[in-house]
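Question (not urgent): is this output format expected?
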Amino acid sequence: MAGAVQFGVLAACVVLFVPMGMAGWHLSRNKMLFFSGALFITLAVEDPSSCIALLHEIVYDVKSRSGVSSMRNASNFEGSWNWVASGPVVACEFQRLGRSDASDLLNGSWVVVAGDSQARLIVVSLLGLVLGPEEMDSVSGDLFKRHSNYQIVIHEIGMKLDFLWAPYVTNLTDVMVDFKQSKNYPDVLVMGAGLWHMLHVTNSSDYGVSLQLLRNSVVSLLPISPDLGNDGPITGSVSIRSPHVFWIGMPMLINSMLNTEEKREKLKDALQSAYEQELYGSKLLRQSGGPLLFLDIQLLSKKCGKQCTGDGMHYGGIVYEAAVHIMLNALLIESHQKL
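Got this back:
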């Protein structure tokens, strides 16, 4: 009887501590991470791939601020979001991470976010989660310098974050080439571009070609499965652990609210649809056989609606906050998948 009890205790320890340690080790190459037991184990209950597919199942509760008659300005609303309460989503037990859990998850990690203004807004939400209000106020001036890079090291958790201004997909390919040449890769890479190409190049086919070149660069860089394409096994990486890579989708554009005549003239629904088709056809995204997990900003912004934007392109913080939590939950799920 005593032997059975001891075996049970040993099994419980294995279930609790081995996944936690290994998941943390996978996310950061710098140190072991230990998340809270409740946070990790709840995300390990359901089939990981099915839960990944449900991450965007969220709902908003949005209303105008008291005393404000118009909601045209994105700052003139207040709202919240959460995952829908349907059976399959509830079973996945997604978590809205607090500052402590998010800091534990990203402890010792190098995070790179590259792209346009949508990517910068992802950085704002991510830093807002791991920094206190006073710290966030102190960095906001540098973070919002137009068309510039930004870097911060959060010494308390050993996390380094780089934002790289890269408004075109060709800029993102250059970033991948730089990683490969330096043989130094981030733990988490979040990137996306398209709005500038739509406005200044306005050629969906050219955009598709640039996405395919980016995909080839990503696949050649990451030590991932050859099932992602016909290029054969990936070799030459300095680490057997693959960075977690995400693609930031373009937002829903509301033409009548765009703030310049050029944008209203060029950025029509038909053009955005053509760009979306090129994205899905490029096999860049995991859902179409590619290496990148999709942060579907168009879906998230569409669910929030026109009341959440002041210029028809950039949305209120809750949209990007939801995207960050989707990313963090995906990190937890992906880490467990690789045990």
